[in-house]
Amino acid sequence: MPERIINLAEALRECLAESAARDSNVLVLAEGAEDPVPMFGTLRDVGERATAEQVIEMPVAENGLVGVAIGAAMMGKRPVVSFQRVEFALLAFEQIVNNAAKAHYISNGEHKVPLVVRLVVGRGWGQGPEHSQSLESVFAAFPGLKVIMPAFPADGKGMLAAAIEDDNPVIVIEHRWCHYTTGDVPAGYYTESLDGPRRIREGSDVTIVATSYMVLEAMRAADALAAAGVQAEVYDLRVVRPLNLSAIEESVARTGRLLTVDTGHHMFGVGAEIVAQIAQRRFGDLTAPPRRLGLPDHPTPSSRGLVPGFYPDAARIAEEVGDMLAIPVDKVAGVVDDLRRLRGDLPIDVPDPFFKGPF
Amino acid sequence: MDDHASVASEIEPAQLLRLHRQMLFLRMVEEAIAVRYAEQEMRCPVHLSVGQEAAAVGVCEALLKTDHAFTTHRCHAHYLMKGGDLVRMLAEIFGKADGCVGGRGGSMHLMDRDCGLEASVPIVGASIPLAVGAALADRLDKKDHISVAFLGDAALEEGAFYEAANFASLRKLPVLFACENNLYSCYTHLDQRQPSRNLTALPKAHGIRAWEVDGNDVGAVHEAAHEAVTHVRSGQGPAFLLMHTYRWLEHCGPDNDDHLQYRPEEEYGLWRERCPLVVSAASLRERGVLDDAVEDAMRAEFVTRIDEAFAAAKQAPLPEPAAAAGHVYA
Ligand SMILES: Cc1ncc(C[n+]2csc(CCOP(=O)(O)OP(=O)(O)O)c2C)c(N)n1
Ligand SMILES: [Mg+2]
């Protein structure tokens, strides 16, 4: 097969177009569904091979329209509601938590809510406190919801297709910077299982479990650490709920060390749950206390002056690993310096092109 | 309930000249931001108000400094007209420590409590209930301030508007809902989002008195705002002011995005002809209070003021990273 290198945004667009074309029950709702650049281009031409009724322009009315989508889903439609920021779905939180997450349970299994809600994390360029939050752990707090975080194009295309096929409500959290990751993506319709994490790098010294964009920072850190003789095993968590940690358990049994890296706050974050479960089940295998990286305990400031230190990056991950492994400080410092040098003069609030891939 | 459709402008020339000046100032500030945005020193999203100046100017002219204003992502004009400081606004957009919120918020979170600009909230509809809450507090404290919620046409799709309007009307709270209908939410026309009906029917259904004006005629806006504010301040309950206007630049950012062809060229052309500054200038020139010399002098004055403000904002220091952790709890 010839390579088809495209980015995640384009891969998601293909998935939506193919899903809508093959199943007329798939409905695509968004504010600006028919914009010139709908949903960062991910909805461009999605209705072309489907029927016109399948693409629905949403009034700026999040709670009501997500409720409408849930009602339609209960009757057998497969709505995909897209929001340009995670924050806009907070207005629909009531419907998502009380109706979408619980309709199947409350109806004693009679109702199904095959709903997909796509949310974008808007990091960078001074987006500030209400346009950049990564709230996966908030949604993951509710039984009945599935929460997925695709990082790579081929995987993301199949994951979104699986989410649309799924008979449960699925929250898809897309990091805006991951939209730019590129890779070889199969043409045509396919699904990727929502079964759990994928190992993307083998190693024996430490297990790093990262979500979404942080997977890319973790990979970069792992590459740099390898130059210093440290072998990090890196997992892309992919599916936050249901949380399947069997592969992570097995990995930690070998490495004895666990580091989680969240795109959201580290307090009450995804990493907190992972660390708790691993500590309970694999306490005896751990040779060092597990650690969590994530956002600090305050909102996201807008100014580039306030952002340094806010987001974990490859250098911080390498530092943390060095500390966990008690590697001599000067040896880690070299790795960290190299990573910082790689970034060069790039401003802090724009994505580093390193992660674009292809992967 | 009587209909307060189109208020004819009977404004005094001197006052109209002042309003014209303020609109020119706003226009020049926003255009200066647009021109300098490419320098990539203003590193946050900006929603400019070019074309919509008459709304902010006309409404704020009817307010007192002690009145509370709450606004949206498109807040520069409201902030400045309520009395906000230009240097602190620009410093905020530049992400500087001297910014009106210390660089925490950027362009979408402007505020200045000293002049009653209490908050700008970039979540559509989210600041409307805050204005009603401020009005409730003033009522309880027996203060005679009023509150204003600036909102766009899209906010009329949000539940928050209806819930807040219901309560404001129920309690006859002193709040003015000032709605700038610029026909669009980002790239999406009103017709694709709402059924066709007069937007004033919405507040009226809640028993709220409504005024509707040409939002590009600053005299008419001010007169209607003055009537609405008088109604609110007299304790008769909330009011709604619908102003028809148009955004010239892209929804977010410094450029014109009409190459994307999401809105008809003729539509934009018609609104440009009805530029608020052209409308006021025509009236002023007719009445002999504005000529080229006066206009040029105003421009020269503002160029200097704006240049100085940009220089000050640029020179201001960035905040220290450690400051980001402050003020999480009171
Ligand atoms: C709850 C919510 N939904 C969606 C958005 C995205 N958004 C930002 S501005 C905007 C347009 C709002 O239109 P309008 O209220 O008419 O104000 P205008 O931009 O025209 O001034 C939208 C949809 C948001 N900020 N908040
Ligand atoms: Mg609008």
Largest interface: A-B, 40 and 46 residues
Task: Give the second-level CATH assignment, the architecture of the largest domain in chain A.
Answer: 3-Layer(aba) Sandwich
Largest sheet of chain B: 6 strands, parallel
Proportion of helical residues of chain A: 25-40%
- CATH topology of the largest domain in chain A: the name is Rossmann fold
Q: Enumerate the strands of the largest sheet of chain B in spatial order, edge to edge or round the barrel.
A: 2-1-3-4-8-7
Largest sheet of chain A: 7 strands, mixed
Textual characterization of the structure:
The complex is a heterodimer of chains A (359) and B (330). With 359 residues, chain A is an alpha/beta fold. Chain A folds into 2 domains: 7-184, Thiamin diphosphate (ThDP)-binding fold, Pyr/PP domains (Rossmann fold); 198-343, Rossmann fold (3-Layer(aba) Sandwich). Helices cover 34% and strands 18% of the residues of chain A. In chain B, 42% of the residues lie in helices and 11% in strands. In chain B, α6 links the parallel β3 (147-152) and β4 (175-181). The termini of chain B are far apart. Chain A binds chain B through residues 31-32, 34-37, 57, 59-64, 87-88, 90-91, 125-131, 296-299, 301-310, 347, 349, and chain B through 43-45, 95-97, 99, 102-109, 121-125, 154-155, 157-160, 185-188, 192-194, 260-262, 317-321, 323-326, 328. The complex binds thiamine diphosphate and magnesium ion.
In short:
With about 350 residues, chain A is α/β, with parallel strands linked by helices.
Considering the chains and any ligands shown, give keywords for the structure.
heterodimer; A: 359 residues; alpha/beta; Rossmann fold; seven-stranded mixed β-sheet; five-stranded mixed β-sheet; 14 strands; globular; B: 330 residues; six-stranded parallel β-sheet; two-stranded antiparallel ribbon; 11 helices; 11% strand; binds thiamine diphosphate; binds magnesium ion
